[in-house]
Records
---
Amino acid sequence: LPPSDRPPAEVRLALNGLIYRNSDPFGVSLGDINLTLRAGEIVGIAGISGNGQRELAALISGEVPLAGRARDMIAMMGAPVGHLGVAARRQAGFAFVPEDRLGRGAVPELSLSHNALLTAHGQGLVRRGVIRRAAEADFTRACIDGFDVRTPGPEAEAGALSGGNLQKFIMGREILLAPRLLLVAQPTWGVDVGAASDIRQRLIRLRNEGAAILVISEELEELFEICDRLHVLHKGHLSPSLHTHATSIEEVGSHMIGEGHSATPTATPTGAMA
């Protein structure tokens, strides 16, 4: 069918007037954020670091769940998840590559095999509560070989890898989960030019297979290369959707300094659960 005659793809992520008051005096509060991400598209979040990217990622991932009354502010695969934690969102087909590699993306003292198990246990790595060591090693080797991770092997400690190699491993681990919805923060930080190109192509391939991907990045050229649409985050507020083929770096830059953003909303923000 021609694009105009095709039914709209499934909405995999919806932020519905998301409001969050950050209790950290050095953090960023978010105001009235609306975003829709459908199957088969990559949407980017541009912006200068410190404008709420970390807070937004934590809310979407479930690391910072909202109070129950705010559950509808975040929906995944059509179901409200704002009140749910990380594990419940992952069970729905969500995967996440955080900006912080060590501590959030991987446990430095654990082997790569055990780090793979942290998010890939549902891929047949555990049966009846028992770890299947061969399956764990096979999955880990697939990450290592498929993403050219320079390491002695699956039993190497995550903390012994260079930042770029750890980034490739974490990206590979999440992409191999074949998620329905993927959030990636700073996907190519610390990797060389060749690896960065490969990661971007992997994300495009995953999108073409039907995944919905949200990319938070400070690299504008990267966002223009892989994204179908862009938003800009500035002081906790999100710009309207910008189609990459119909906008320019200059227009995005004006949003990054706040020229295209609306005034701060006056609605009462909703805080995270204790």
---
Amino acid sequence: MKELLLNQETNVELHPIDSVIQVTTTEDRLKAFLNIQPPDNGAKPPTLAAMEERLALQNVTCGIHAETLKELARIPQYNQKILIAEGIPPENGTDGSSVFQFSVERECKPKLNSDGTVDFLDLNLIENVEKGQCLCLITLPTCGTEGLAVTGQKLAPIKGKPVPSFLGHNTQLSSDETKILSKVDGQVEFVRGKINVNETLTLKGDVNLSTGNIKVNGNIVVSGTVFPGFTVEAGGSIEVKGPVESAILKAGTNIKLYSGITGSKMECSGDLCSRFIENCTVFVKGNVKSEYIMDSDIKYSKNLEIIG
């Protein structure tokens, strides 16, 4: 028979009141909590099935702490916020990164030789690169890993940000997009956020103590004078607008001197054109053309033309 409870003061029958099971989730849906209000008037504590049913009604289906539920069914804990389910947080992707393989900010200072001496004519002004050379290593961003909410939905991660594009003149990405490569032989520079490789170096001034000796893989144009004691070498061509005196010029292709040259040494694999040549030693694999030549040792493979 059903046992009835009576209010001792009013002698009125009291009806049993079952436990109230509340389920709440965090805003990110990564945690769910259980709060049980105690039964009253002789009602029975919540069963495992009742708690599981309440979780299902709130769509909490993943990451449930089954052992905690069983323990609550055995020994109920009332009016407490109990962690009952945990999801899997997403792992955000990592941002891309880059490492330059050349000096972005060149420091012009004399070269220190291995024997402790200082070469004041080598100021490290230019950095030469070759075709196909790696100029920048790039680490690609990652997409991250999806998470899982306690309600079963997938949680999207935040993707990593790619590095900005450093591609400039005569540069290209490798096929796997992890390297920036030079497309030509030349001189590398970093200007306004871009990597450029210049086939022709234009020197707006003289070759003197402020520049040191000049050696480039590509071409060079000197707007001023090549002063005594200095060397200009180019894998490509050399053009000098001012006079050249007691210097050394070496070119992989042609040499063109708009003024002239005295007391110097020259060699090139292409043609030589100069206004005049005095007291020089010259070796040319192509043609030689000049207004006049005086007191010089000239060796050439093709033609010699005096136009003065």
